[in-house]
Specification:
Helices cover about 30% and strands about 25% of the residues. The protein contains 14 helices and 23 strands. The protein is elongated and about 65 Å long. A four-stranded mixed beta sheet has the order 21-22-1-23. It has a four-stranded mixed beta sheet with strand order 2-14-16-15. The structure holds ligand EPZ. Ligand EPZ binds next to helix 1, helix 5, helix 6 and helix 12.
Length: about 425
């Protein structure tokens, strides 16, 4: 088990190129299963979750390699339709592969990854939608077997009770090669879904309405290979902006997706940081003490404030002047990082969905454990602003989503080492 050892109190300064987006790379890798040909992905981030996805693809008989930031996937010779439990367990978003395998092979067997860091993550909406598209589903003690009796799924009109990102992606993946048209009402509008749809359109898929609440997919017979560049990671961007806001200093974020980051940036601006965005770059400067955010920060599906940025912004607001309040509306259990922040001197009270953050003058170093990906990143944000040294354990959580985390922070003048 590795740790990050961070000594805080240094201002950060410099410019960084934003990594490729984890949450679109994973569904795009799954989408490549639908393609009869070679797909080349540029800006593919080097992350443990991406390597787990590559292992699933290779297990299925696809050829997948990642060299530097280029991913190559060729699913022409795919033979398998089962994901073993050990690979399902490596990564919760392995569920993403279900729709694609079913769409290409007409059947798929997998297991549900168990309870997770963020609370229960059921897949009832995914399964109900696939059943409407023709799938017969059998649950045999943890292993789930989905099968299209006619070998191919058919289009359907679907209405989601909540705009789930994963369910929307799985339905699109299953619909692309289906017979007929699929309509998804109350679809999720996250930019990562649009990135996956742009990739699929580059391969010949017929999809309309992504980014809106009603998505239409007209099934086609076959997809062809393509070259595609993955969009930048808006949550990694939010993390490095929060880090600079917390530690003080200035940052230029290059290769930033300005429109997609607007829901986060518009809240961060209220802390008194100077922020300027133009030409795919975001500049942030923090001089004096941060100010608390006056209105309740409610996490909501896109274009609301992203749940994935809740923890990192909370870490920055821990030393702001005044009281900020978060309301977590997406996951039941997404405040697990607060215990570590409290250990570092933060004044945080969690009451159900709400967390009240009374800004303190300073945080201090502590020995803490990362609880989940974004929670772990939030601890690093707090550690860079704190006095003294913090040791963060269980950093495999952080490695799931941040490429060269310590190198990026070191390049900005932060003191961090892996040991
Ligand atoms: C995606 O997870 C992201 N993961 C998450 O990012 C992100 O936090 C989340 O969307 C919300 O934006 C990937 O893209 C790989 P959901 P997903 O289905 O698809 C409930 C990160 O830090 N629900 O929109 O799993 C569910 O329990 C990760 O990078 C059902 O009840 O999210 C949750 O409360 C963490 N039944 C809510 O909906 C279902 O069938 C939102 O989940 C499906 C979901």
């Amino acid at each position: 088990m590795q740790n990050f050892v961070i000594t805080g109190g240094k201002r950060l300064s410099g410019e960084i190129e934003l990594q490729g987006c984890k949450n679109s790379t994973l569904p795009i890798m799954a989408a490549a299963i639908l393609v009869n040909g070679k797909c080349s992905l540029e800006s593919c981030p080097n992350l443990t979750d991406v390597y787990s996805a590559a292992r699933i693809l290779n297990h299925l008989g696809c050829k997948c390699s990642i060299v530097g930031n280029r991913g190559e996937i060729d699913a022409s010779a795919i033979t398998g339709s089962e994901i073993p439990e050990r690979l399902m367990r490596e990564m919760r978003s392995s569920i993403m592969f279900m729709g694609a395998i079913l769409g290409r092979m007409g059947e798929c067997t997998f297991s549900i990854p168990g309870g997770c860091e963020l609370g229960p993550r059921p897949i009832d909406m995914h399964l109900a939608a696939l059943a409407k598209m023709g799938a017969e589903i059998q649950d045999t003690g943890g292993r789930i077997c989905c099968r299209m009796p006619k070998g191919r799924s058919h289009g359907a009109r679907l209405s989601l009770s909540f705009p789930s990102v994963g369910a929307t992606e799985n339905i699109i993946l299953c619909a692309v090669l289906a017979e007929g048209e699929t309509v998804i009402n109350n679809a999720a509008r996250e930019p990562e879904i649009c990135d996956m749809c742009r990739f699929l359109r580059s391969c010949g898929a017929k999809i309309k309405g992504d980014g809106e609440s009603c998505i239409m997919v007209e099934g086609v017979e076959k997809l062809h290979g393509c070259e595609y560049r993955i969009m930048p990671d808006r949550i990694a961007g939010a993390t490095y902006l929060s880090m600079t806001a917390a530690a003080g200093g200035e940052l230029i974020l290059k290769n930033a997706c300005i429109a997609e980051m607007e829901p986060f940036v518009s809240i961060l601006e209220q802390t008194g940081c100077f922020i300027c965005a133009a030409d795919n770059r975001i500049y942030l400067r923090r001089g004096g003490r941060l100010k608390a955010v006056k209105n309740r920060i409610r996490t909501m599906p896109h274009p609301g404030f992203p749940t994935d940025a809740q923890a990192v912004l909370m870490a920055a607001l821990a030393t702001a002047e005044g009281t900020s309040v978060f309301e977590e509306n997406i996951f039941d259990c997404r405040y697990r990082h607060t215990d570590a922040l409290i250990k570092m001197g933060a004044d945080i009270q969690v009451m159900g969905k709400a967390a009240v953050i009374r800004g303190v003058r300073r945080l201090h170093g502590a020995d803490i454990e990362a609880t989940d990906l974004r929670g772990g990143a939030a601890m690093a944000v707090a550690a860079l602003a704190a006095e003294g040294t913090t040791r963060i354990g269980s950093i495999s959580h952080i490695d799931r989503g941040y490429e060269k985390f310590e190198d990026v922070i070191t390049s900005l003048g932060g003191s961090i080492r892996r040991e």
